[in-house]
Known about the structure:
Helix content is 47%, strand content 12%. By secondary structure, the protein is α/β, with parallel strands linked by helices. The protein has an 8-stranded parallel sheet. Helix 3 (84-93) runs parallel beside helix 4 (114-127) and helix 10 (229-247) runs antiparallel to helix 12. The chain starts with 5 loop residues before the first strand and ends with a helix.
Amino acid sequence: MSAFVGTGVALVTPFKDDLSIDFEALERLVEDQIVNGIDYLVVLGTTGEYSTLNKQEKEQVIDCIVKANNNRLPLVLGIGGNNTMAVVEQVKTTNLSAFQAVLSVSPYYNKPSQEGIFQHFKLVAEASPLPIILYNVPGRTSSNILPETIARIARECDNVIGVKEAAGDIVQAMRLMSLVPKDFKVISGDDMITLPMTLAGGAGVISVIGQGFPAAFSQMVKLGLEGKAKEAYQFHYKIAPSIDLIFAEGNPVGIKSLLEKKGICSKNVRLPLVNASEVLQAKIGDFVNDFHAEVV
Length: 296
């Protein structure tokens, strides 16, 4: 399987009760992904609570994951923001030697035009020694990278190799796939429509729920890539209720609660996020128990 096809996961950053980073839990999480069939790991994305980590903590998280991974899976590093020149500088000055690609989110809050988005990524791509995967997530950025803009970036920026498409719009995703070059990877950034996107010609997923059920979710994606829709949907419908649960109170609130039920890390998140409510924790716990019992 070629790079960045299949199941990638956007790793959480585990915290202890005092909200310091739990590096032992992070090592457990990485190992659990590797032994259960995940294809690549995404470091310091939104799910990793990147915005609440200081510079030293970010470096420590990177070091921990790189060491735990031990060159077994490709690694993607999240570098993005809404100040183009600051993103360019970060790409230029970050030690990227352990990574195979950079995931860069579309500028948020500023709400740039499509031309502004294109010019932003053109400069970031020119600065990067690694391939770039765009990240389109309108629900967080308040702006949507249109398929035509992504296709333009793909044509004019040689080292932009794909997009994590998280608009949650299967029609937009299909239009996007019809416009981009054949080797450009359209990667689902929405767990619930990962399978239909993959069956429609997508390259798989960068997932949140995937780290909770890595074996089952990665198998679903593998079957989807093989065009085995009937078999793949059996996994989809088993996992789907948990996707609604983990996003009910925000990300990574829900997935951390699920990972706590599995004994991998605590549910703790940093403000302005708050831990999952007791009601949601109970629902997630019931799902994990039922899912485990079904698998066993």
